[in-house]
Amino acid sequence: MEAYRICEKKNNELLTLFHGINGSRKLEMNTWLEAKVKPVRDGSRRTSKEYMSGFHSIGTLEECIEFVGKFRKARTLVIVKLEIEGNIWKKEHSPANIILSEKIKLLEVVKEINICK
User: Fold this and answer.
1) Domain that holds residue 58
2) What is the pTM of this model?
3) Mean pLDDT of all residues in 45-64
């Protein structure tokens, strides 16, 4: 299934926005990556919701471009087209259309966005 993901671009490398994989935020292109699916929480202690972890992606390029507007920290972000497979589920408590999956393969960078705030 095709989807899109927001990544950070730094020193010409793609990085996860938050949590890393096996101790690294670096993401390889054209390689299947597998998530460690486990119960996790996000948000503040007061408002956090538990859900099963997985790779976050968004179903369409248009939704992904809209979602990038939520980021404020100055940095370079990219939208990457990817393939997702394995178990795929929705992040139910998210106001955005976030898809979680066991596996991703980054195919190509389709848009670069410089946040300068």
Assistant:
1) 2-115
2) 0.91
3) 91
Of 102, 98, 100, 99, which is closest to residue 86 (Cα–Cα)?
A: 102
Which CATH number do you get for residue 95? 3.20.170
Quick one: DSSP state of residue 12? Answer: T
Number of domains forming the structure of the chain: 1
What contacts 24+ positions apart, CB below 8 Å, involve 110-114? 110/4, 110/61, 110/79, 110/80, 110/81, 111/61, 111/65, 111/78, 111/79, 112/9, 112/76, 112/77, 112/78, 113/68, 113/76, 113/77, 113/78, 113/79, 114/76, 114/77
Q: What is the pLDDT of residues 5-51, one digit of tens each?
A: 999 999 999 999 988 888 899 999 999 999 999 999 887 778 788 89
